[in-house]
Amino acid sequence: MKILVINPNTSVAITDTFKPIIAKFNAAKDTAKISYWTCPTGPSIIKTQAQLHESAAHCIPLLLGIADEFDGFLAACYADHPIVRLLQSYVGSKPVVGIFDATVVAALQLSNAGSTFGIITTGVAYEALLSGGVVKLLRGNEALLAKFSGVAASGIGMEDLLPGWEDVAKEKIMEATTRLLRSADKVDVLLMGGVILTGMERWVHEACALELGSVEGGKVKVVDQLLAGMVMLDGLLQHKTADLDFSRALG
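That's the DCG1-like protein sequence above. Prediction below.
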């Protein structure tokens, strides 16, 4: 199987952060040849609905030129990105998975009865963007939406990833996690909601332990967005969507 991992913004540095996570998953599965693609034009970072559509307009014509070379596609942008549905309409039976969609499906599977899931994201603008995306993805289903406790922005941006960044980023992630835990009851699944947050799951775990205690905090599951996408895509490629094992997506 040949998989194309798509970064729909122009940052090669962000694409490079995907590689060790996905390589680790693929080594365990040993099922696919992974290639990475960064859009050469368009937004360097995506923060608004308008930029999502601008990004798609740049990506789709270029992707259609190489789509025949691949069996499946992972859209690595944490949003309800139009590229997922658009590309799917062109490639027919080949699966196209967005990491945002995959994490929400993972949360619904991993959360316990009576519990909820939330999203830790980057900038404040994403709180409304991602909340709206969840509502759209779940098609207004009240029973499913009752399991969604909301989105907490950490305020982390690309400027926080410069040398010496870890202390500042850790403080921001832990503050956002604590705020989300306090805003809703029985949160037992947290989703990492932004590709620049890759690798920061450990700070979410630390914040959960401090806020809830080591025992209860240790029960909160933290979903890695890239791994969730790979679990779903692998399942679709193997025609085994009924028994997706999202425990492999925990960071």
